[in-house]
């Protein structure tokens, strides 16, 4: 397939790409999990390594020159397929798929496996902050207040177990170009960590807001740039 | 190879395992990068996916039942090979290898590739917090004050570019069971983000400290549990 720059891609083409890349990326996520947990013999490790290297060479026969960036849909939505938390094409993303509820809050149900471990059996404290940063940013974006993270504070209430988790985030208040978003992760025993972040409206968004009319595009959510 | 539970493994065996697993894990990291960046044809994607799935099945023929946990060396040092930031066997870890300097400060030079992206060309803000949490925790541990993260605050000064970066962390002060650690990431244009974290001494460490004598083991660093 020609790798469509999304500016040129139709919604159908994007759906077709998603159907191709989502299961492919999932397969590489499974390989990463198996790489960490395997106890097969040394010779088998070396044999698998050689095959992995050969597959990498086949994929690199044609590739984009640098990072993925954010591709844009004709409809105006961002396509953050490279994003380290939500990216459909990023094997290190769990991935976390957030839904915007009717009241503007964002929630996501997701699963953290062995590769997200810090303390034994628990998610790494930094993985907790990684996911909360993303969810708070999406909540800000969903409320028409996209932004780069200015500050982020995490309060850890208890260890976050690996396995099924829920994340929730919402806008707490706004003031000028700043948006305060809050959120938390919830495990089987309740809230494990709470977050507050300040998100700063970028210059292009301020200009769009200033020029906003009923016919102008609404502000895109944060997937454009995070 | 029998996957040695480290309690039974000698230093030689551990060195041999590292020589086996470090290049293997690096190969899977390269595959993850290529998975995100490839632009090869659809049929080639499907063919590579099938081969990845076959390799995963070979690795899963024998594996540990859950997450990696922390294995212990006979010498008493922890072996956090599963850790999401520093883990030698974890394909999603960059990895970040921190060095403890003579003055007790911790520093690490590392490289972030395409899979760590948030905003186009920049590290995800949550990846910044992920790495800083780890470095602050290691600084606390290096100073004999290991702990689980209690709170973590990140102040973002500028976007953190993908590519070569340096992280630094140190203990700012201690009070009872709490340790305040600080740190930052530095890119080509200076400090990109600053962090402060409070780390809480766990119960087992308090007991070890209370019982400390010249013959007793020194407190292990945080790699035991993070």
Question: Any descriptors?
Answer:
6-stranded antiparallel beta sheet; Thiol Ester Dehydrase, Chain A; homodimer; 25% strand; two-stranded antiparallel sheet; 8 strands; disordered C terminus; 31% helix; alpha+beta; 4 helices; 2 domains; 226 residues
Structure description:
Chain A is α+β, with helices and mostly antiparallel strands and 226 residues long. Chain A has two domains: 1-94, no CATH class; 96-224, Hotdog Thioesterase (Thiol Ester Dehydrase, Chain A). Chain A is built from four helices and eight strands; from the N terminus they run ααββββαββββα. Chain A has helices at 11-37, 42-59, 125-142, 203-210; strands at residues 71-72, 78-79, 99-100, 106-112, 148-156, 163-175, 178-187, 190-200. Chain A has a six-stranded antiparallel beta sheet, covered by helices on one side. A two-stranded antiparallel sheet of chain A has the order 1-2. The radius of gyration of chain A is 19 Å and the shape is globular. The first copy, chain A, starts with 10 loop residues before the first helix and ends in a 16-residue tail after the last helix. The interface between A and B is large, with 86 and 86 residues.
Whole-number tally of structural domains of chain A: 2
Question: Mind telling me the CATH superfamily name of the largest domain in chain A?
Answer: Hotdog Thioesterase
Radius of gyration of chain A, Cα only, in angstroms?
Answer: 19 Å
By helix and strand content of chain A, what is the structural category? alpha+beta
Sheet with most strands of chain A: 6 strands, antiparallel
The stretches of 5 or more residues of chain A where confidence is low (pLDDT under 50) are 214-218, 220-226
CATH class of the largest domain in chain A: Alpha Beta
Annotation field: number of helices of chain A: 4
What is the oligomeric state here? homodimer
């Amino acid at each position: 397939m020609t790798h469509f720059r999304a500016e040129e891609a139709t919604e159908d083409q994007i759906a077709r790409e998603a159907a191709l890349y989502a299961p492919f990326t999932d397969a590489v996520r499974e390989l990463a999990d198996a790489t960490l947990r395997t106890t097969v013999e040394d010779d088998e490790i070396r044999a698998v390594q050689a095959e992995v290297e050969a597959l990498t060479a086949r994929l690199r026969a044609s590739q984009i020159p640098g990072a993925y960036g954010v591709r844009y849909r004709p409809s105006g939505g961002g396509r953050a397929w490279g994003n380290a938390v939500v990216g459909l094409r990023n094997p290190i993303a769990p991935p976390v798929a957030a839904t915007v509820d009717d009241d503007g809050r964002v929630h996501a149900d997701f699963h953290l496996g062995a590769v997200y471990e810090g303390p034994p059996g628990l998610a790494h404290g930094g993985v907790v902050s990684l996911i909360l940063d993303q969810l708070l940013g999406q909540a800000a974006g969903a409320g028409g207040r996209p932004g780069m993270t200015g500050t982020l504070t995490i309060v850890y209430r208890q260890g976050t177990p690996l396995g099924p988790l829920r994340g929730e985030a919402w806008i707490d208040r706004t003031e000028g170009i700043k948006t305060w978003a809050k959120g938390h992760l919830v495990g089987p025993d309740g809230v494990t960590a709470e977050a507050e972040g300040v998100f700063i409206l970028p210059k292009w968004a301020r200009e769009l807001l200033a020029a906003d009319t009923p016919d102008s595009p609404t502000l895109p959510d944060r997937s454009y740039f995070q």
